[in-house]
Amino acid sequence: MGLYCALTIMVVFTGYLSYMITYTPNLPCSCGGVLQQMTWNQHLIFNVVFTLLALFAIWLTRKKGNINEAENKIPKTVFT
Description:
Elements: H1 2-23, H2 40-73
């Protein structure tokens, strides 16, 4: 659930960055820390990379879940 929430937030914020870069002539900067040193285009690339990482993590989690589901479908032999 956390990965899906993180992905949603990153997609929304990346959309916001794209909109600001495309339609706003004077871009404000209220970022702090490392992100303050980035340009808006660099920030967009940063967000896209972490959005892709979230997607990859979800894919890995689902892939691992499918393996576990397949193992759970095999009937267990009970010895009495």
